[in-house]
Amino acid sequence: PSAPRHTNRLINEKSPYLLQHAHNPVDWYPWGQEAFEKAKRENKVIFLSVGYSTCHWCHVMEEESFKSKDIGEIMNKHFVCIKVDREERPDVDKVYMTFVQATSGGGGWPMSVWLTPDLKPFAGGTYFPPEDGFHRVGFRTVLLRIAEQWEENKDALLESSHRILEALRQTSEIHVQGQESPPPSKEVMDTCFQQLSRSYDEDYGGFSQSPKFPTPVNLNFLFTYWALHRTTPEGARALQMALHTLKMMAHGGIHDHIGQGFHRYSTDQHWHVPHFEKMLYDQGQLAAVYSRAFQISGDEFFASVARDILLYVSRDLSDQVGGFYSAEDADSYPTTTSGEKREGAFCVWEAEELQALLPDPVEGAREGITLGDVFMHHYGVKETGNVDPMQDPHQELKGKNVLIAQCSPELTAAKFGLEPGRLDALLQECRHRLATARAQRPRPHLDTKMLAAWNGLMISGFAQAGAALAEQGYVHRAAQAAAFLKTHLFDPTSGRLLRSCYRGKDNSVEQSAVPIQGFLEDYVFVIQALFDLYEASLEQSWLEWALHLQHMQDKLFWDPKGFAYFSNEAGDPSLLLRLKGDQDGAEPTANSVTVTNLLRAACYSGHMDWVEKAGQILAAFSERLQKIPIALPEMARATAIFHHTLKQVVICGDPQGEDTKEMLHCVRSVFSPNKVLMLADGDSAGFLYRQLPFLASLERKDGKATAYLCSNFTCSLPVTSVQELRGMLSP
């Protein structure tokens, strides 16, 4: 490629998203004092553009507008232009997304917001086409109109921005009302179940018509609801909804049948045509959910999907030092000679291409049947392509096929006169060949930023799968990633987490000149991961670090007046609002997960003030939990855990003893949402014994590994058989 004609300040950043824009003709600044001072000095409007490196419409707006010399000149003349990677700075993103959603009724990325020099928003939207069209105003026109308004009606804009900010401050405040207590668990759980049940798609699973998102938070809620209502019709329906959704997703095109892992979401009702980017946070949560589905159902299908996800992450999203990368892009070049990227190019197939790759005749099938015939039938491939034009507005997928398992293995085997076991082997051979062929294509962009929060979610995925599937290799990978976090995303001097680090030259790990401090979600997801890792490995150092981080989280983010945690710490004058997330979406909101974290922390430490804090969070969100718990399914789930009290399952035994291992395997193989596991190994000097003196009174019975079920540090009679233990774990 020829040398770039333009280079702006973003060339000095580490974020892959900011570096993508370093050669735009726009005079971009990163979020920071230099840009703010320039805006004040020159009395200019700030244009804030927020996105992320694997965002399809961010790429489109860059190609159409930010690479345009003419539009760049307008932007540079009238505005101070700031670029923000929303994954690096979720705090900045959340403040201005709150404004965009409140004023336009929608949101998304790229986010485009115009601010006064003191950072108050007065106009905003998402993607703008470059020029005026039949239905919407073009970006050029918007820029010129706002520049004109700033010249002619500056005082009115300033007044408007002040009013908007005050309104946002009032509407976004979440605090406890008077002496409010946590909402009643049964009503919250029942209402959430009913709301999910009404939005459930009976045919294809999921909780909307289209687009369809994986939403692990909904599935986790349904599993917990089932566990508490196993013998009722509602409990049976909750389980059926969750398992059917997981099966349909795994069969669908949202699941990458050749390269493993899950794409971001489906554009249609059938889980067929996805938006092709792959995000780390989806892989982490889905690995955990499929592992739970296996625990509950015993169906090996769910275990195989969990393994498939973890294979993808180990191979394609893993840094060699131990961390996990953030995402893979949706867009890539169709061939090595293509000049233009297309969405899904890396993943889709033409029928002709498949026939050429799979020409072998199939022994035992009818004469003339090839591997290609069997594979194409099973995965819904059509000669003219299987993508509905309605799902392909830019005709990027015309004539292409997105693989979707449309038949059961039994039906496909019957159609071609094959044994089901033989069919599995044939399909596996086909997928292997296609993976080899696909490896020759140009790969999508890989975002090699490593975020503490998302690494936490992925550590939980590996640790929970390792425990549920009895795969020690997964537990080891989780521990490797946790050690990476402690080395690269934790400052031992201050005791605080950092938000992000980056893959540098020669695969080294780099940090930005001024590291970004961790946000609430970084603490919450890492603490959750460390608890999960302790239960999978029984290595007490992870527990010790988790409790340290919980104390630090309390210090940095707790709201002592209104209760619950703020998303970011106080003291940053560039942030106009301190917010508390109030929706469980693609990721659960941090306050939802922290309720369960606090209850687990209390069980492992004896600090009962953490139980009180958990109750105060539920009280602060009480109104929302009672009216629309479907917006907070993870927090709704936590109300049940809070009200039922976590049970401490204590195994007394030699960690290397076979009887101890059998008992641990039993505990890990049973889905029980309101338990914590700990091993009392007799080391009275160990961390757990120092935290929980009652453990010293528990002992092995007749020299055998012995289990106790404790609640509020009062323990049941000891049991020494796995059968008794299994009965004890059932509600």
TrEMBL record:
One record GO biological process: carbohydrate metabolic process
UniProt xrefs under InterPro entries: 6-hairpin_glycosidase_sf (IPR008928), 6hp_glycosidase-like_sf (IPR012341), Ssp411 (IPR024705), Ssp411-like_TRX (IPR004879), Thioredoxin-like_sf (IPR036249)
Domain spans labelled Spermatogenesis-associated protein 20-like TRX: 7-168
Name of the protein in its database record: SPT20 protein
Source species of the chain: Furnarius figulus
